[in-house]
Design brief:
The protein is α/β, with parallel strands linked by helices and 290 residues long. It has one domain: Rossmann fold (3-Layer(aba) Sandwich), CATH 3.40.50. Helices cover 43% and strands 16% of the residues. The chain is built from twelve helices and eight strands. The chain has an eight-stranded mixed beta sheet with strand order 2-1-8-7-3-6-4-5, with helices on both faces. Strand 1 and strand 2 form a beta hairpin. The longest helix is centred in the C-terminal third of the chain and has 25 residues.
């Protein structure tokens, strides 16, 4: 480990006991450093999170810092920013606009300040790129109401904020089943939900646009490692955007991480985690999110 990496390792989790999480590759235990050493060799690292998992967000910051310590050319990519705000994000990273104007204009998630700002601020302090990877929600809403065919009528400038159209709906059978069960279950709770097939296309638009945003950056910036953070449903089992990244370029070395609060922690990974990611990180449940 380099001196820089060692210094970063000392500050990875300032508010947490390092024993408060466990890292696994399959059923084999790994240290955080072992995982980081491997991740730094990848072209793309995809981290799947539970959006309300406090320790999960601290671990994401630890992973981003740890990969950067080992690989100076590391970029951050976030589901939490939509592609049309990329110029605003770039202005903030370059110091052209204040944080208040950035927050007013970039449509950050409600939990941005506590959950994602630490990663963005690390990137800003170290002059690292941040990719606003996601599809704007207004276009996702069009698909949920009218299906992806309705996107064809958008102006050319609007389509630049999306993956190339039409995007494929050839998705892994396991992912298709997972989405079917998810959206049919949502229909049971809310009968006014859009058709299940439209909801699947909405999910696919998110996946396809995030993957396209990452691939575009990677093509222009060879030799960089990209750390992408998104909801675990977009990447667990290498479904979603991971599947699309690999299809876009089979030569990409993609490593996946998923962070799970485990009610039975500490425990060895059970069968429900089989094949879920290259690295599984288990933590105790957050006190407010058991």
């Amino acid at each position: 480990m380099t001196l820089l990496a060692a210094l970063f390792a000392l500050i990875l989790l300032p508010s947490q006991d390092p024993g408060a999480f466990r890292v696994y590759a399959g059923a084999e235990s790994r240290t955080l450093d072992q995982m980081l050493d491997d991740l730094a060799k990848a072209d793309i690292v995809v981290i799947g999170e539970n959006h309300d998992h406090k320790l999960g967000h601290e671990l994401e910051l630890a992973i981003f810092k740890g990969v950067h310590a080992r690989k100076p050319k590391t970029a951050l990519s976030l589901e939490m920013f939509e592609r049309d705000v990329q110029p605003i994000l770039d202005e903030y990273l370059a110091g052209h606009i204040t944080e208040s104007h950035f927050l007013q204009s970039a449509r950050p998630w409600p939990t941005y300040k506590t959950d994602y700002a630490p990663m963005v601020e690390h990137a800003r302090a170290n002059k690292l790129p941040v990719i606003a990877s996601n599809a704007p929600r207004r276009y996702v809403n069009i698909v949920s109401r009218k299906s992806q065919s309705a996107l064809a009528d958008l102006p050319h400038a609007s389509k630049q904020n999306l993956a190339p159209l039409p995007f494929s709906m050839e998705i892994p059978p396991g992912y298709d089943l997972m989405l079917t069960n998810l959206f049919q279950g949502n229909h049971g709770q809310n009968p006014n939900m859009p058709p299940v097939e439209n909801m699947k296309q909405s999910q696919a638009l998110w996946d396809a646009t995030m993957a396209d945003s990452i691939v575009r950056f990677q093509r222009k910036n060879r030799g960089w490692t990209i750390v992408q953070v998104n909801g675990a449903g977009h990447s667990d089992h290498r479904y979603g955007l991971v599947d699309r990244l690999q299809k876009a370029n089979p030569r990409l070395k993609i490593k996946t991480v998923t962070i799970k609060p485990e009610p039975a922690y500490p425990t060895l990974p059970t069968a429900k985690y089989n094949g879920i990611a290259d690295y599984l990180i288990l933590t105790p449940p957050d006190p407010k999110n058991p």
